[in-house]
Amino acid sequence: MSLAESYPYYLGNAPEAPNHDLEVVDKYSGEVATRVALADDAAIDRAIGLAVEATEPMAALAAYERKAVLDHCVARFRERFEELAMALCIEAGKPIKDARGEVTRLIDTFQIASEESVRIGGDVMPLDISPRARGYQGMWKRVPIGPCSFISPFNFPLNLAAHKVAPALAVGCPFVLKPASLTPIGALVIGEVLAETDLPRGAFSILPCSRAGAARFTEDDRLKLLSFTGSPGVGWDLKAKAGKKPVVLELGGNAAVIVDADADLDDAVERIVFGAFYQSGQSCIGVQRVIVHADIYETFRNALVARTKALEMGDPRLETTFIGPMISEKEAARLHGWIESAIDAGATLLCGGHREGAMLEATLLENVPRDQDVVRQEAFGPVAILSRFDDFDAALDEVNDSVFGLQAGIFTRDLYKAHAAWDRLEVGGVVIGDVPSWRVDHMPYGGVKESGLGREGVKFAIEDMTEIRLMVIRTPGA
């Protein structure tokens, strides 16, 4: 199975192919896999104008009509499951098992949105809290915020686009989406499926474009919400340029996991190997820092190293491959440089550390000085750092010693320590008995500090994409 020779973009629900200027590379072979139409400023401006025109027709859709669109997507994604998985494998270099997992989550996200679309409600509230409000009652409902702007990243081209698109469809918001230029195919297939529906003209546009050409996605005042997933440097800059519109940012992390002395070591090793190295570590909640109790440190380290060395690296199309290529040779070289810098500063290389092109071995380090980039920054690749602790409170402090705060994992059987972690850790989510890399698509997901603003998870994204509208009723003489 291979990609089509070329792909159009979608503007106002319809495919257009004015050019084939964007080359999409097979991340394993390095060869051009397909070409995609690239939108210019005029196309983006047209798309936003059509989204504005679609605002009222989209808001007027009945709940069952919005649900029908989402149900159609679920059915078609199931029919095209292997095609979607192979597209991820090629355009993102994602090992095929991880790719199938992402398609499953794409389907989950649209299914959740379908269910939520028919239960977007409101409330009746008493207003007569004092004599002056006698005879008054209030009620409120949620209404669509209007045209939305979405920018999605390269590492989950399907599901992170879905976390923006599906809630917008559930509430009736038209949108324009800019997928990552490195991995646009998944989003364009979503567009192909949406084009099969009867959505009002202008309901959606999916427009790959250059970063320089994407200013309208952020700055255009006709857009009423910006939702961005990507790097902190880009995200905070976009927020500064977004004007008056609300902004939702998911900007990555530097995820830590604590392994306490009472943990099931075999289970912790298996989960941490997965959390650190699945899809070559290119996840914003991938395990980067592993903080292990001193009493079990050596036993745990030896088991983790042995298990990491056993991971198979190679062609992502093969069922046995666990480590595939990073998204580009440039990114692999960047992270390899961080690893070498840490070793030069005194760190111990436990395994891995070798790079060939975009392929970087699963790497474990210990005794890494805390001022090193591989500790302080988001690695976003197949590397994890081991350290030890004696005092649980000190371990919590070490987790918090980061500018990021997305998710953290705690392997402990102590209920009080679990609650202490939940109370004290400066993160958006604390996962007990598992790695921070775990996520299911209806939970509130997002971070604090440099990790961003707001929460994804369909129900919570719906809150961002709607506004509360109050109605007050006065009964004269009451």
Annotation keywords:
Aldehyde Dehydrogenase, Chain A, domain 2; alpha/beta; six-stranded mixed β-sheet; seven-stranded mixed β-sheet; 478 residues; Aldehyde Dehydrogenase, Chain A, domain 1
- Distance N to C terminus: 72 Å
For the sheet with most strands, the description reads: 7 strands, mixed
The average pLDDT value, as a whole number, equals 97
Helical amount: 25-40%
**In the CATH hierarchy, what is the architecture of the largest domain at level 2?**
3-Layer(aba) Sandwich
What's the count of strands? 25
Report low-confidence residues grouped into runs of 5 or more. none
- The largest sheet has its strands arranged as 15-18-19-14-13-21-22
Number of helical segments with 4 or more residues:
16
Which class do the helix and strand fractions yield? alpha/beta
Oligomer: single chain
Number of domains: 2
**CATH fold naming of the largest domain:** Aldehyde Dehydrogenase, Chain A, domain 1
Gross geometry: globular
Percent in strands: 15-25%
Q: Nearest-angstrom radius of gyration?
A: 24 Å
